[in-house]
Amino acid sequence: MIKTKGLTRHFGDFTAVKDVSFELQEGETLALIGPSGCGKTTTLKMLNRLITPTAGQVWVNGQDISQQPVVQLRRQMGYVIQDMGLFPHYTVAENIAVVPKLLGWEKPKIQERTGALLEQLGLDTGAFAQKYPHELSGGQQQRVGIARALAANPPIILMDEPFGALDPLTRQQIRRDFMELEELRSKTTIMVTHDIEEAFEMGSLICLLNRGKVQQLGPPETLLRAPANDFVADFVSEKAAQLELRSAKLRDIFGQLPQQPPVEGEALPLSNTLPLLHAIYQLAKAKSKHPLGTTTLHEQQRYFTLNHLIEAFKNNLQSWAN
Amino acid sequence: MGELITFLSDNREKVTEQILEHIGLTFTSLLFAAIIAIPVGIFITRRPRLSGGVLAFTGILQTIPSIALLGFLIPVLGIGVKPAIFALFLYALLPILRNTYTGISEVDAAVKEAALGIGLSKGQLLRQVELPLALPVIFAGLRTATVINVGVATLAAYIGAGGLGEFIFGGIALNNATMILAGALPAALLAIIFDQLLALLQNTNARKLSKLGKPILLVIPLLSSAYFWPQAYAPGWSAGFPPEFMGRPDGYQKVVDTYGVDFSTTIINNALMYKAVYESEVDVISGYATDGRVAAYNLRQLEDDRHAFPPYYCAAVVQKKLAEENKNITEALNLLAGRINDSVMTVLNYQVDFGKQPPEKVARNFLKAEGIWKADRKEGGKTLIIGSKIFTEQYILVELFSQLINGYTDYDVDTRPGLGGTKICFDALRNGEIDLYPEYTGTGLQVLLDPPPDTLKRIITQPDAVYRYVSREFEEQYGLRWLTPLGFNNTYALMMREAQAKALNIKTISDLAGRD
User: Fold this and answer.
1) Is the CATH number 3.20.20.70 carried by domain A2-246?
2) Are B167 and B275 part of one and the same domain?
3) Fewest CB atoms within 10 Å of the CB: A185, A217, B2, B134?
4) Are B68 and B207 within one domain?
């Protein structure tokens, strides 16, 4: 879907990014992480050509992006930034409609799409569509920012510290809502964050950068269990416990789950990328007497109760202790 | 207040014309300034390295005193409406340019990044994001420029471009506060009205403003064209008259009453009117007979065949007490009596106006040639203050007087040349702020005294009678003494280009009246 090779960027004598290469399949989420000034934002901006690489190439669907008209390229990539960057003179609805309008969508289609997105992001269309950004809270603004990025249904989403400007509570909430967005399942997402927990929670792939160079690229578990060097080990060690908890996801225990529902009742569908802890929380929150959950992976369906999850979680902790 | 209302209603056509001209000057220059400054302002946000230089350059333009700027422009653009609009244009550049630059630069960087990131082109970024967000700041710039221009446009009258400055300059020359107010008050009101209207627009949000865009685009050229409305139906000879001539009893009104001729008048500074008629900006001016430029510009002096103008023999007017107590002052100045005839004075004027020689040198050379020059005695005695009106001849006369006083008496001389007009000189003399100045008998007769009509009619054609009358009346009424006349008669005279006068066969003012 998206592939980079040898991406390098100099600013004068300073090398911001050196030789970054990765490949991402459709539906995967890459978290670019590292300390301040490690080159993660520069890397992200080279993907939509807000920054031109000094060397190296980027391909989207096999096409070299440097050969494409830059405006068209960007319209296929949603872009969310920390400071939202909503147009202050546009209403919420107009902000969301910017790209569809540029693409020449019909008015009813734009309206329908805007309404649907607001709904999905938990903003009541009637109450919010005609408001201006300054009338919204930070969290609401960021939801609108996300809606704007998704509006024209781009296959790729780029996010630069998307939750960075929010207070911890709002941040947690939006992140969770965001991960549960049906829309995002099929999107290829690249996000920049300095929050390692966020990276481990959201990323199917982690790219840890330091001083412009890739330290390790791989699934979250690999960084935890097989750090490539001391920098990676140090970087993950401090929060290893939390990361471990967050990195164990439903799909990791998929094989252990029954194929038939063990109890009667309606099953709560959950994403296979949901961390076990969240799944436990979601089931416990469900008000039914015998809570039942279900998830799918490669078109197979599995069921689970709270007990299944707690058991699996225990096993996971034990394997970690060994 | 009552006087002002009377004045305004008596002159309502002139007031309307001046207001329209004023609006026209302001908005034409504003339009051009906006057309240049807004794109340049946008451009320098794209080239930050240029911004410092460009802003500094327009900033320097802004610091040039307006009168000096108009002066600089005369050799290049001549006089009249072109240099006036160009000067106003230069003054309007900075506020518009600076505010465009600031407005666009201050658009939140995150908004710009997001706009580019989601796929707006640079043009779309400018039109959809940067300009709408910068609009209130740009409008603030337009507002500042408008207020500056309404103010500076009052100076346009100085170079014959009309506007409300005509009354202001006229009022200053005639020391007539009501007339000054008749120009200043409407100008101030215009500034306030336009300021408030633009403030309204500035506070309207960008969306509504873009809907108002088209009407605004129509209104500005319409306002700009206001300048030409009065001229479209102006009857009569196009004439350039200095403010003082317009207001004097022996000036414009006297000519109109005597000859019944129609003029479409433009007020113009008396130093510039010769050039104005020479360059066909106007067809008739009220020149001075002894001015060096009459010959140089090949102007024809129209004969005053019905004696609208009195004789204007020049003499020093002195405080009577001073003249009696210091006979040596009178004796020194009377050395000039009868020595300067019309052609001599014309030559002296020519040497200054065209020879570009300083009046001080011209005066010394003349005194030496006459054999009456003496070196400054430098006694360090009391100080004598000599004043003058603001035209070349008077500057030369002040030099002649002061060199004689320095050479023949113990007095030191302090000069106050260039006082705005007759009334200002006269009031300064009466109040003792100056001790003497050169005056003309006709001016004394008609501007400073108010003789009964039959007396006026009886003496107006006799130079000696006029001199005797003003001498006597000045001593009695004001305690001022006229010294012996120098010899020349610097009369007012209507003048035209020789070629035009010849083609139309106009020799006298009566001929002019027959052809309007």
Assistant:
1) no
2) no
3) B2
4) yes
Are B324 and B287 within one domain?
no
Question: Which contacts of A309-316 are long-range, i.e. CB under 8 A and separated by 24 or more positions?
Answer: A309/A276, A309/A279, A309/A280, A309/A283, A310/A280, A312/A253, A312/A256, A312/A276, A313/A248, A313/A276, A313/A277, A313/A280, A316/A244, A316/A248, A316/A252, A316/A253, A316/A276
- Shortest Cα distance from B110 to chain A (angstroms)? 5
Residue identified by tokens 């006979």 is B327
Options 3.90.1280, 3.20.20, 3.30.70, 3.50.4; which CATH number does A248-321 get?
A: 3.90.1280
Write down the pTM of the prediction.
Answer: 0.75
| Residue to substitute from A50, A95, A102, interface B, most B β-carbons within 10 A | A102
Q: Which residues in chain B are contacts of A157 at CB distance < 8 A?
A: none
| Chain A residues with CB-CB distance to B124 below 8 A | 102
Band the pLDDT of B393: cuts 50, 70, 90. Answer: very high
Tell me the sheet residues that pair with A10.
A15
Which of A86, A89, A102 is closest, CB to CB, to B120?
A102
* Domain CATH code at residue B135: 1.10.3720.10
Domain match, B91 and B176 both: yes
Structure tokens at A36: 């301040």
CA distance A106 to B72: 59
Beta strands (DSSP E) in B74-123 are none
State the smallest CA–CA distance between residue B73 and chain A in angstroms. 44
> Does the pLDDT at position A192 exceed 80?
yes
Query: For residue B446, what are its two tokens?
Result: 């008609």
pLDDT at residue A199 greater than cutoff 70: yes
| Residues of B whose CB is below 8 A from A82 | 110
Question: Testing the interface with B: which of A87, A148, A158 to mutate, by most B Cβ within 10 A?
Answer: A87
User: Does the distance separating the beta carbons of A148 and B117 come in below 8 Å?
Assistant: no
Identity of the amino acid at B55: L
**In chain A, which segments carry CATH 3.90.1280?**
248-321
Q: Which of A45, A47, A71, A99 to mutate to test the interface with B (most CBs of B within 10 A)?
A: A71
Q: Which of residues 151-190 of A touch B (CB under 8 A)?
A: 158
Contact A87 B206 (CB under 8 A): no
Nearest to B312 by CA among B425, B468, B443, B423: B443
The verdict on B408 and B508 lying in the same domain is no
Domains contained in chain B, number: 3
Best to test chain A binding among B104, B118, B128, B203 (most A CBs inside 10 Å) = B118
Q: Could you tell me where in chain A the CATH 3.40.50.300 domains are found?
A: 2-246
* Residue B281 binned pLDDT confidence (cut-offs 50, 70, 90): confident
> Domain range for residue B282?
237-307+494-514
* Residues of A whose CB is below 8 A from B205: 89
What is the DSSP code string of A186-237? Answer: G-EEEEEES-HHHHHHH-SEEEEEETTEEEEEE-HHHHHHS-SSHHHHHHHH
pLDDT higher than 60, residue B516: no
Residue A149 to residue B132, Cβ atoms within 8 A: no
Q: Do B118 and A145 touch (CB under 8 A)?
A: no
Q: C-alpha angle with apex B170: B164 to B171, nearest 5 degrees?
A: 95
Q: Which two tokens stand for residue A89?
A: 């003179």
A81 touching B, CB under 8 A?
yes
A65 near B CB under 8 A: no
Locate the chain B residue with the closest alpha carbon to A82: B110
Instruction: Provide, rounded to the nearest whole percent, the portion of chain B with pLDDT above 70.
Output: 96
Yes or no, beta carbons of A50 and B114 under 8 Å apart: no
State yes or no: pLDDT of B169 exceeds 70: yes
Q: By mean pLDDT, which of A73-87, A126-140, A278-292, B59-73 is the weakest?
A: A278-292
pLDDT by residue (tens digit) across B109-128? 999 999 999 999 999 999 99
Judged by a CB distance cut-off of 8 A, whether residue A149 touches chain B is: yes
